[in-house]
Amino acid sequence: MFAYNGRGRIAGFHQQVDYVKLGPSLLIAGSLVLAIRTARWSRDVECTASQPEWDAEVEHSVRIAYRVLTHLVKKFPSLFNQMEVPRYEPDDDESPP
């Protein structure tokens, strides 16, 4: 049984990483990297949002977390939430790639 929509007939489904749900994972991972990297800072240094050193450290921590998550998604996609994505049949006037 095929469902029809404006893009053609649905021929089936395939699994894909649900990228929308990776946002909270990136937030948590970036925060953990930031906490580990700034744990060695002295306690008398006050970190405010206006200090460029703090901004650079936050950006670098998020960059590290993003690279790790990207690597894990490429190598081990089954670790993350999956979603079903429809696969469409080509129309009669379309040629398959």
Which band does the percent of strand residues land in?
Answer: 15-25%
Quaternary:
single chain
SS-derived structural category: alpha+beta
Low-confidence stretches: none
Shape: elongated
Task: Profile the largest sheet.
Answer: 3 strands, antiparallel
Give the SSE order as H and E letters: EEHHE
Cα-atom Rg, whole angstroms? 22 Å
Q: Determine the fraction of residues in helical runs and give it as a percent range.
A: 40-55%
Number of helical regions: 2
Describe the strand arrangement of the main beta sheet, using strand numbers. 1-2-3
Mean pLDDT over the full residue set = 80
Tell how many strands the DSSP assignment holds.
3
First and last CA, distance? 24 Å
Fill in the keyword field for this structure.
97 residues; alpha+beta; 2 helices; 3 strands; 42% helix
In short:
The chain is of the alpha+beta class. 42% of the residues lie in helices and 20% in strands.
Describe this structure in words.
- The protein has 97 residues and is an alpha+beta fold.
- The protein has a domain at 17-39 and 51-88.
- Helices cover 42% and strands 20% of the residues.
- It is built from two helices and three strands.
- It has helices spanning 22-38, 52-75; strands at 4-5, 8-17, 82-88.
- The chain has a three-stranded antiparallel beta sheet with strand order 1-2-3, with no helix packed on it.
- Helix 1 (22-38) packs across helix 2 (52-75).
- The model has no long low-confidence stretch (mean pLDDT 80).
